[in-house]
Amino acid sequence: MSIVVTGATGHLGRLAIQSLLAKGVPAAEIVGLGRQVDKIADLGITVKQVSYEDPESLRAAFEGADKVLFISGSEAGARLAQHTNVVAAAQAAQVGLLVYTSIAKADTSDLKLAEEHLATEKLITESGLPYVFLRNSWYLENYNVAQGLEHGFVGASGEGRISAATRADFAEAAAAVLTSDNQAGRVYELGGPGFTMDEFAAEVAKQSGKPVTYTDLGEDKYREMLVGVGLPEGFAAILADSDRGAAAGQLFVPADDLESLLGRPATSLTTYVGTALKS
User: Fold this and answer.
1) How far apart (Å, rounded) are the C-alpha atoms in residues 238 and 16?
2) Concatenated DSSP letters for the chain?
3) Which fold has domain 3-137+166-190+254-266?
4) What residue ranges are annotated as transmembrane (predicted)?
5) How many beta carbons lie within 10 A of that of residue 211, not counting itself?
6) Strand-strand pairing, 214-216 and 97-103
7) Cβ pair 277, 213 in contact under 8 A
8) d(Cα 91, Cα 84) in Å, to the nearest integer?
9) What pLDDT is attached to residue 79?
10) For residue 52, which of 82, 79, 25, 29 has the smallest C-alpha distance?
11) How many CA atoms are closer than 13 Å to the CA of 209, on its beta-carbon side?
12) Ordered per-residue pLDDT tens for the chain, 279 residues
């Protein structure tokens, strides 16, 4: 069996490969694709330098692949063109299963970030390839505990519950799908138990013994604040819009799918904060 992992040189890709190895998949059966291949040279797998902008390199890398973990691109606004190349290459290579990392509630969400994911899901379903959609909610790592401890947390998510989980949990779930049978056609809504940002701040305060607050600015003021600290306007707008969606419940999903794939509870907020405070 051959399992190809795209975006393997990023955080999630590396963790997915480590999870595959931990599940007993031989290193010789794993191919990692990415731009900065030196980042995964230590894993003992086959490594190929590939870019989502290079259709020919993708086609060559997918030849003979039984399964492909297709990790979405990180460049919002450029994803759809990149993803079109990936899907076309997978179709040309007739891969046995295409597992795509999407976003929570991609088919109903009105988040700006969801648009390219939903379009990619459509490309995949129309390709005729067997597929699985891993609709990941937020990463817990999106929240900088040390920074929040020093300055407090700010945002625009109000009282919305956010089903964030660690990258490691999402990666392990992906590995579980890749090493299981009868997965084609499944759609998993993946996220942790969920919390509000007030609860997040309270947990940091509890474990640190210091006062920590969450300040809700609303979407417009939050976007302005992000631009004010140096973020590009487009990216700031996406982050503020994501918090707007979170306030409306669009980043909350039950933990059932994730915990079923993991075979254990997802990493708790308490555990994540405790680990972050020690690092």
Assistant:
1) 26
2) --EEETTTTSHHHHHHHHHHHHTT--GGGEEEEES-GGGGGGG-SEEEE--TT-HHHHHHHHTT-SEEEEPPPS-TTTHHHHHHHHHHHHHHHT-SEEEEEEETTTTT---HHHHHHHHHHHHHHHHT--EEEEEE--BGGGS-HHHHHHH-EEES-TT--B--B-HHHHHHHHHHHHTSSS-TT-EEEE--S-B-HHHHHHHHHHHHTS---EEE--HHHHHHHHHHTT--HHHHHHHHHHHHHHHTTTT---SHHHHHHHTSPPPPHHHHHHHHHH-
3) Rossmann fold (3.40.50)
4) none
5) 10
6) unpaired
7) no
8) 11
9) 87
10) 82
11) 0
12) 799 999 999 999 999 999 999 999 999 999 999 988 889 999 999 999 999 999 999 999 999 999 999 999 988 778 899 999 999 999 999 999 999 999 999 999 999 999 999 999 999 999 999 999 999 999 999 999 999 999 999 999 999 999 999 999 999 999 999 999 999 999 999 999 999 999 999 999 999 999 999 999 999 999 999 999 999 999 999 999 999 999 999 999 999 999 999 999 999 999 999 999 998
Q: Which two tokens stand for residue 260?
A: 């079923």
C-alpha to C-alpha distance for 48 and 173, rounded to whole angstroms: 24
Torsion angle defined by CA atoms of residues 18, 179, 173 and 249, in that order, rounded to the nearest 10 degrees? 140
Residue 6 tokens read as 């795209």
Determine the length of the chain. Answer: 279
Both structure tokens of 22: 């931990």
